[in-house]
């Protein structure tokens, strides 16, 4: 009888760690999955569920014919991805995009992993690089890796962590939206055509909004945070407003692909049209995520603007420069990590 393989230790039960665990157990390799929540939290996660989506509930375009992300979705489906299976089971309307009910999605991933006989989930922080006796390990602790482990990775690799501020999108109380003015429509009527709520602004309202953003109170950065750049792909709204009064109306608030049924002959100035409807949060409509009240992220700008619960939230993220630190199959270069074997992929 052939000996069953030694377990692989996967550290981090987020999206990457959950998928990696699933793919390994599908190949008959047992996995010990280490997830620190709820024993220890992060600045952005709010549940103790595996594969929590920390911000947007959108997986972006699902169009495999015309979009690289959609093609990646299809390839992942063909590879039996647990993330795609669970996303498909928990899909919510979002035009041509694949968006999910965030709680149902994470619960589905967790349920499948816990039900698998080769998966063992250990809750608790891994407080440093894995010990040599763990054998093959995969570190998938994401942009909010706990401090002790991040410090050890930093010390072992010698690489400077690249840190940046990423915005968590605002949330809006549904009962603050006036549906005599707002309307349901997806841009260019994609999907079933009514997946988004559009809130039009007149030119005067738009200019006031930009003024509010520019003049509103903002949190001061600590000295060591001052030079930290923003992630340009996900900027806080007040940072976009600072870049010029037209930035938002030519950016995320652009009024294209939409016709206002309440006023069809007048093209509105900008629209905050990215409000996504999720069926799991009936009172609060989430532009992306729903931060908890005890989150340690900084409110960059808490608006008096009616309807906004809180405008931007920021989290400090860290990442490392993968190409300079890893071998072609993404294992850490042996000179960098001396504490034990680190690559599953390389050995198989
Ligand atoms: C504020 C913010 C907003 C973001 N917005 C978006 C977005 O809108 N769209 C998008 O695609 N991506 C967004 N991201 C990036 C997002 O984090 C990734 O897309 C995705 O979550 C990465 O998956 P992951 O598995 O690498 O990390 P995660 O999903 O963060 O999973 C890592 C897991 O490791 C655990 N962990 C950390 N350290 C340890 C340790 N020492 N021991 C044990 N467990 C540990 C954590 O608890 C976590 O569960 C955002 C990130 C942040 C911080």
Write up what this structure looks like:
The chain is of the alpha+beta class. It has two domains: 8-57 and 101-160 and 321-347, FAD/NAD(P)-binding domain, CATH 3.50.50; 166-318, no CATH class. It has helices at 15-26, 68-78, 82-89, 102-115, 147-157, 203-215, 237-242, 322-325, 344-347, and strands at 8-11, 31-35, 58-61, 91-92, 97-100, 119-123, 137-139, 162-168, 171-173, 183-184, 196-200, 271-276, 284-286, 298-301, 308-310, 312-319. The strands form five sheets. It has a four-stranded parallel β-sheet, covered by helices on one side. A three-stranded antiparallel β-sheet has the order 3-5-4. Strand 4 and strand 5 form a beta hairpin. Helix 3 crosses helix 4. The longest helix has 14 residues, at 102-115. The model is unreliable at 272-310 and 334-348 (pLDDT under 50). The structure holds flavin-adenine dinucleotide (FAD).
């Amino acid at each position: 009888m052939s000996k069953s393989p030694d377990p692989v230790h996967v550290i981090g039960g987020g999206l990457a760690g959950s998928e990696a665990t699933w793919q390994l157990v599908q190949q008959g390799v047992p996995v010990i999955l280490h997830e620190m929540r709820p024993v220890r939290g992060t600045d952005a996660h709010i549940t103790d569920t595996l594969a929590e989506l920390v911000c947007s509930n959108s997986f972006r375009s699902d169009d495999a014919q015309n979009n690289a992300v959609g093609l990646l979705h299809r390839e992942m489906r063909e590879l039996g991805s647990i993330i795609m299976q669970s996303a498909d089971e928990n899909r919510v309307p979002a035009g041509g995009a694949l968006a999910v009910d965030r709680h149902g999605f994470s619960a589905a991933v967790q349920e499948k992993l816990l039900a698998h006989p080769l998966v063992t989930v250990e809750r608790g922080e891994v407080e440093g690089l894995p010990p040599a006796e763990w054998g093959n390990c995969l570190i998938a602790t994401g942009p909010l890796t706990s401090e002790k482990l991040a410090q050890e990775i930093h010390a072992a690799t010698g690489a400077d962590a690249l840190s940046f501020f990423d915005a968590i999108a605002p949330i809006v109380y549904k009962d603050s939206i006036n549906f005599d003015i707002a309307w349901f429509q997806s841009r260019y009527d994609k999907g079933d055509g009514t997946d988004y709520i559009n809130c039009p602004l007149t030119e005067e309202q738009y200019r006031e909004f930009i003024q509010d953003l520019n003049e509103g109170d903002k949190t001061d950065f600590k000295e060591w945070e001052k030079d930290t750049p923003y992630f340009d792909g996900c900027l806080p709204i007040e940072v976009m407003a600072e870049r010029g009064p037209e930035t938002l109306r030519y950016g995320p608030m652009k009024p294209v692909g939409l016709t206002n049924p309440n006023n069809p002959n007048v093209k509105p100035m900008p629209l905050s049209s990215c409000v996504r409807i999720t069926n799991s949060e009936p009172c609060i409509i989430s532009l992306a995520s729903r931060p908890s009240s005890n989150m340690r992220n900084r409110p960059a700008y808490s608006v008096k603007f009616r309807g906004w619960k809180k405008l931007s939230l920021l989290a400090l993220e860290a990442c490392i420069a993968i190409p300079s630190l890893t071998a072609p199959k993404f294992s850490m270069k042996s000179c960098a990590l001396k504490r034990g074997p680190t690559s599953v992929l390389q050995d198989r």
